[in-house]
Structures are given as structure tokens and as C-alpha cells.
Amino acid sequence: MRHIVVVILVAFLAGFTSCNSSESSDSTENKENNLFISGTIKGANGQKAYLEAVSQNGVISVADGVIENEQFDLQTNIPGLGIYQLRIGEQPDNALIITAKKGDKIKISGDISNIAFGAKISGVEWGNQYGKYMELVAGFSKSQNELMALQGQLSQEELVKKYLELKKPMDEYAREQINKNPASAFNIVLSNSLMPATGFVDYPKENVETLRKMADSYEKNHADSPITQTLIQQVTQIESGYNEYEIMKTGKKPAPDILMESPEGKEIKLSSLKGKVVLIDFWASWCGPCRKENPNVVKLYNKYKNKGFTIYSVSLDTDQASWVNAIEQDGLIWPNHVSDLMGWKSFVIKLYGFSAIPHTVLVGKDGNIIDVGLRGDALEKRLAEILK
């Protein structure tokens, strides 16, 4: 479980640290030290302590030193606010995240057997936050392992719902702490909890507001850090995506038209179905979750086809035989099956802005989008509201 937690905390850092990794890799020779990290690590005598920047291109060493009498002392020069990994010894699990700015004197104490969870941090304003947040991360990781074991027993919608429930304490703590002190260096870590991990369905508006508050504060207080510019870009993208989703839900955004061929070579235009409620279902024969969802889609088609409902299935297959066989095997009896057999190179990916399938878009009788990302019980409930 320790390894999973390290991955959780480190994996998302690439987006931030790739911007400042080149600066971190610059030689610090002849530069005055402005970051000081020291401490006591029980059980680590004789091992090395490594301060590293994590980037998309790998790990870049910033400073290192041997732990003697369980004590270590690292000093280096940093260009400004940054995020780093302090690794003890050669095991990647034995690591913790450090957010640091010029002049910080950070003290760390802990035991090598539980350094990621149990480290105590002092000397910086976010020391207590680190301990509390790691408790929440540890609990979330344990519960997430248990949730993964339920795959196959629960529907995708049930899994997502439980995932969001498990994640809720982390989200609430992150929002509370960021709103209290939006300029805090540790917010780089806390903000990870507020990113839209499962799209914008059920994504809280207060997350957007908190992230914007943090970005504005960073722009004012940490303008010299590349992390700030990356954060601003990310928050702007999230705001744009959230606002786009909200517009879609109002039913005022027209569904971009699609013109593709059926397996028989007949051109079928999405707009030709105007006047009906249309479920655009992006899927593929090779997509396990798509195939698992198909019986539910068939059930809903049969239930509502006489009430002005139809389905426009867009396949991301590249092999026509596989596509046709899946249609027959899963009993997808509606007539509107199309594909350009371009897979993930299809123009519809950018046109509808999705990165995973199955993905659904619900279009009203007027041709405007009224919801996205619905499956299972959520889709059936929405159709029941519309097609009374």
C-alpha cells in the first residue's frame, strides 16, 4: 500500500514539475544555498537521502547526502517555489513530497519503515497539513484497494459513486486548507484532490472556485515560479471544461454534426435524427466496459424507441469485421451505426472532447446537448424524466 500512496502523490506532479525541471537540473555550483532540509530518520543509518525533482522525463537529482547517526542535512539552491521528492535509500516507496520555496528550513523526522505516512515536518507553515493530509491519503488508498476488489461485482456507476464518496474527506480538507491560505506552498499537493478525476459529472463547483482562488494567489505571491503559470493554465482549462459542461446541461449547445458511414457504406448524418431524443454512444468492439454496458443500452432502446428515442452509435474500431461482429453479438438492433474506422485518430474525438470510452452524449429533440457521460441507472433515470 505504501507504493500506491507514493504513486498517488508523485504521478500527478509531472504536470507541475516538468516546467521547473530544467531549472532544477541547472548546476547549483557557485550559487548561494537557499533551501535547507535536515532531520532524523530512524533505521536509515548509512543510507543516502536524495532530494529530487520529478518530471515527465524522469527524476532529476537536486541534492544528496549520507545519513550518519540517523541524521541528514541537505542544502541546495532553488530558483523559487518548487515541488520535490525526498527519497531515503534506494527503495522508491521510501519517499515523501516536499514543497519548498527560497529560504525554507525544513526539518523532518520519522522512521524508515513508514516514512511516507509517518514523517513529521516542522519549520514550515504546512508541516501540520502534511501529517493530516497523509492520514487521509492512507485511508483513501486502503479503501481504494478494497474498492478495486469489487470490480466485476458492481456497475461502473456504482464504482464511481463509491470512489467519490471515499475521496470526499480528502476533497473537503483540501478545500478548507486552500481557502484558509491560498498562497501556501503545500497547496500544490492539496490541489490534486480537487482536480476532475472522473470528468465534470457531479464535479463540485466549489472545487473550481477554490482552484481559481489558489491560482490568483499564486500569481500574486509566486509570480517567479514556473509552477504558477502551469497552475493558471490548468485552472483555466478546468474552468472552461466545467462551464462547457454546464452549458451542455442547459440544452442550449447544439450537438456538433457527425457524418459517417454505416457498415453497409450508407452515410448517416447525426442531424438527420433531429426530432428525436438521441443517445450518441461512442464505443468499440475491443472496449470491455463498452461491451458490458451494451445490454443496458439495448434495454433502454427497447423501452423508449416508441417514445421518440433512438441511438446513434459511433464506433472507434479500426477493423470492420470486429465492429460488425460486436454489433451482432451484443444485439445492437438500432439502425444508426457509423464509423470512419480511424480509432483514436477519428475527428470525433476532438469534436466531442472525450478521452475514454464508453462516452455518451444525450441530445434533445431540438438537436441541443442536454447531458453527457450518462450510463446505467443514471441514463435510465434521465430518459425517464425526458420521455414521460
How is the topology of this model organized?
Blueprint (H helix, E strand, L loop, with lengths): L1 H10 L2 H11 L10 E8 L5 E8 L2 E9 L4 E6 L5 E7 L6 E6 L4 E7 L3 H4 L1 E3 L4 H22 L7 H25 L6 H4 L14 H17 L4 H24 L3 E2 L4 E3 L5 E3 L7 E7 L4 H17 L4 E7 L4 H10 L7 E2 L9 H5 L6 E5 L4 E5 L3 H11 L2
Parallel strand pairs: 1-7, 12-13, 13-14
Antiparallel strand pairs: 1-4, 2-3, 2-5, 5-6, 7-8, 9-16, 10-11, 12-15, 15-16
GO cellular component, one term: cell envelope
Protein name: AhpC/TSA family protein
Keywords: Cytochrome c-type biogenesis, Disulfide bond, Redox-active center, Signal
Supply database-style keywords:
cytochrome c-type biogenesis, disordered N terminus, Glutaredoxin, oxidoreductase activity, 388 residues, Immunoglobulin-like
Unreliably modeled segments: 1-15, 17-27
Multimeric state: single chain
Number of domains: 2
- Following the backbone from N to C, one meets helices and strands in this order, namely HHEEEEEEEHEHHHHHEEEEHEHEHEEH
CATH level 1 class label of the largest domain: Mainly Beta
CATH topology name of the largest domain: Immunoglobulin-like
> Treating each run of at least 4 consecutive H or I residues as one helix, how many helices?
12
CATH superfamily of the largest domain: Carboxypeptidase-like, regulatory domain
| Basic shape | elongated
**Beta fraction:** 15-25%
